[in-house]
Amino acid sequence: MIGRLGRCLALLLALWMTVATASLARAEDYVPTVLITGANRGIGLELARQYTARGWKVIATARKPAEAAELRALAAGSDGRLVVEALDVTDLAAIDVLAAKYQGQPVDVLFNNAGITGSGNSQIFAKKMDWPVYEQVLRTNVIGPLKMAEAFLPHILASQQKKISNVSSSQGSIGSTKNGMLYFYRPSKAALNMEMRNLAIQLKSKGVSVALIDPGPVDTDMMSMLPKRMLRPVTTAGSDLIRITDQLSVENSGTFWTFDGSVLPWLERP
Asked: What pLDDT sits at residue 4?
C-alpha cells in the first residue's frame, strides 16, 4: 500500500515538473507586443523604432500608411517584427475592426500616442473659436484613447504586462495652469487624464496598470512654433516614455508623470 502511494506521488511530481517546465519554456519564449497609435511621425515613430530595436512585436497605426515613408521603411527592415496598420482613432468602428483582426493576440502595452493640438489660432477665446476643430480635438485626444482601451481590453488581459500608457501633457494639469490659452487642447488632455484615472481604478483588480505621461516640449511638428532650443530631442522623449512605462505597475497605476519621473498635480495643491 505504501509502495503504491509512493509511486502515485512520484508520478504526480513528475507530471507537475513537466507542466512547470513547459510553462517556464513558454514564458522564456514569450515576445511582448506593443500597439502604438499615431506612429507615422514624431513621438509615435520613435516609440515604434525603439520598441522594434528591443525585439518586441510592434503594431504601429497611422491614418495614412501610404504617406508614412519612415514608418514603412522601419517595418521593411524589422524582419516582420513591426506591422503597419491603417487607423484613424476618431473612427470608432475602425477600432473595433482592428481589434477583431488581432483577436487572440496579446497586447502587453497599448500606447495611446495619437493626438492633435487643434492649432493655436483656432482656440483664442472671444476672438476666434473654431468649434468644429474643438470637436475634432476631443474625438482624437479623449474619445479615441478610451475606445482603444475598451476594444483592446481582451488583448491586454491576455498579455503578461497588461499596461496602457497615454501620451498626456503638462497642459492637462489644472494645478499648473497659470494663464489663459489653448482652450481646446488643455481641456482635452485634462479629460484624458480623468478618464484614464477612472480606468486605472476600475482595472486594478484585473492586474491592468495605466500611465499618463507628459513628454515635455519635444522637437516634433506639433511643437514647430517653439524655438528649437526649448525642445527636447525626440529620441530622448521616446526613451523617457518607455522607461516610465517599464516602471508602471498596479501600485502606481493612474499616476500623472512628467518625463523625468516626477508627479504632476491634478488640481491646485492645498
From this structure: 63
When pLDDT is averaged across residues 146-173 and rounded to a whole number, the result is 94
pLDDT, residue 6, reads: 56
Say yes or no to pLDDT of 43 above 80.
yes
Question: How far is residue 43's CA from residue 96's CA, in Å, rounded to a whole number?
Answer: 24
DSSP string, 125-180: TTTEE-HHHHHHHHIIIIIHHHHHHHHTHHHHHTSSS-EEEEE--GGG-GGG--S-
Q: What angle do CA 100, 135, 113 make, to 5 degrees?
A: 50
What nine digits make up the cell of 75?
A: 517595418
Domain boundaries, given as residue ranges, for the chain: 33-258
- All cell numbers assigned to 270: 492645498
Return all residues near 148 (Cβ < 8 A) that are at least 6 apart: 35, 37, 89, 95, 110, 112
Query: Distance between CA 152 and CA 136 in Å, rounded?
Result: 22
DSSP-based three-state secondary structure for 203: helix
Which residues have CB under 8 Å from 52's CB, separation 6+? 58, 74, 78, 81, 82
Please name the residues in contact with 257: beta carbons below 8 A apart, sequence gap of 6 or more.
Answer: 211, 212, 213, 214, 244, 263, 264
Is the predicted pLDDT of residue 227 greater than 60, yes or no?
A: no
Q: What are phi and psi of 129, to 5 degrees?
A: -120, 105
The third-level CATH classification (topology) of the domain covering 33-258 is Rossmann fold (3.40.50)
Contact by Cβ (8 Å): 136, 90: yes
